[in-house]
Request: fold
Amino acid sequence: MDLKRAREDDYERCIICQDDKHEKLLNASEQGLTTLKESASMRHKLRERDVKYRLTIERIATMQDDIAPVWHKSCYSSFTSKSKISRLEKSKDTCARTSADGGSRRALRSSTKPIDWALCMFCQKSGTTKLSAVTTFKMSQQILDASKYDQILSVRLSSVCDLIAYEGKYHCTCYKAFMRRTSKTSDSISMVDLAMQWLVEELKTSAKQGHILELSQVWNRYCELAELAGTEVPQSFVSRRATFKEKLQSLLDVYDFVVMHNREVGDRQTVLIPMSIRHIPIIRLLDEKDGESTMQLYKAGDNEFLELVHVALRLRSDILAQPCHKGLDISEDAVMACVPDSLYYVN
Reply:
């Protein structure tokens, strides 16, 4: 069963925008309709990049022959523009070469919303302020180059090579603020590791969620962010991983770096433990009114090493939380009262 909501097309409105603009609707001529369908066919081949007109292309392709469509002159001119279609074709080729040379860039967060090209590309709002369009290749490239210094916009524009083809719009105040902010970042980029800045922000969020991480996982994420930012990983980090750890420790105060020794294989691993749960018994984190954990639940068996870490952390926290023995009574019951319940279940 198809669960998609049926699209309702109103052919008494502009077949391209389907909006009620204060603009006269024109009846389709035979030649005009032919040009419209040819443009829709060309744009259909570029539909992965032509996000603005995906619904319009589908609407024209499924239109019955006995329907006489109408359109706004401005909408028709923009949709059938050969120069804009040509730009889409060129941007497709350019991005394909970029992907082959440098590999595809991964998004920082899967939750990042795709850009709405009908709104200001910076604030993603329409408001009452007039929107301006990107009309020169120089401005398009300037914004794309500067976007790599903005974490959110770099994700939204990661697959865009030409803002004119996408009909990018902006508020003048947003554009000036964006260029001023990214310019400051660009000027100091030689002294600042952009990927490290992004990593620290992500780790702060992870710490709030109670995530326990291996340093190797954090290193891999840093390398991904460096690729996304278009920066090289410092050679000092590559040749000596301890340098990366020391740099991260100097910038991060929400994690405790704990070295765990594996005696069986004679190896050791560094684990990042959130400061907020370091001295709190894990059982208390689960004892919430709604019955849900305040930290990410750990599934045993996913990683044997991390499983041991969680056990060790619970024992450590429970011991620290257990009241100390007081008085002179050294009977068996008094001694056992100082032992946390969790220790009884350890084999």
